[in-house]
Write a structure and sequence with these properties.
- Pfam families: Abhydrolase_11 (PF20408).
- This is KANL3/Tex30 alpha/beta hydrolase-like domain-containing protein.
- It comes from Mycobacterium paragordonae.
- Helix 1 crosses helix 6 and helix 3 crosses helix 4.
- Helix 5 links the parallel strand 6 and strand 7.
- It is built from 6 helices and 7 strands, in the order ββαβααβαββαβα.
- A 7-stranded mixed sheet has the order 1-3-2-4-5-6-7, with helices on both faces.
- The longest helix is centred in the middle third of the chain and has 16 residues.
- Helix content is about 30%, strand content about 20%.
- By secondary structure, it is of the alpha/beta class.
- The N and C termini lie far apart (about 40 Å).
Length: about 210
Amino acid sequence: MNLDDIAGIAHEPADTPQGVAVLTHGAGGNRDSPLLQRICDEWARQGWLAVRYNLPYRRRRPKGPPSNSAIADQAGVVEAIELCRTLADGPLIVGGHSYGGRQTSMVVAALEVPVDELTLFSYPVHPPGKPERRRTEHLPRISVPTVFTHGTSDPFGTIVELREAAALIPARTEIVEITGARHDLGSKTLDVPALAVDAALRLFRSPGQTA
């Protein structure tokens, strides 16, 4: 297999990679989302090999949201993790934005493939306007450190709701709050990629509990 099999693009560090970060996109996007590109650039700047890739539903069609494709998309996450593990030595950190992060977290919760950490961007705690429809059932089965990067104005979950969700995870967690940001994590004042990557590295290296 090679990166073409997962429609992946690698961001390579200047020296031998310290590890691998594998990230995917949200429901309306693809591997070329500005957020993913900037995050992968930051991982590479900090010495890691970073790969952004398309989920299977996006490989099948260039536009539109996923439709009844969760099982296939989770299989695509497994495929991407297994492939990227062969690209460099060191820890493997996985995650994604919104839908992609949720599908990745479900793969990790199911223990389908071993990883060292999760990094989730704009985790969709619930559909907009439907706080009763929580998407958190699998979180208690996640056993690796998990970073949530989340906007304080995200309609898919308030910071309070996200903290409640994060508390379900028995492993160490950290929440990176992006003040004023919505679901796309856009910010004119904060360096979102740097904050997210710094938090992931800090949590990965820390033996203590962070919240």
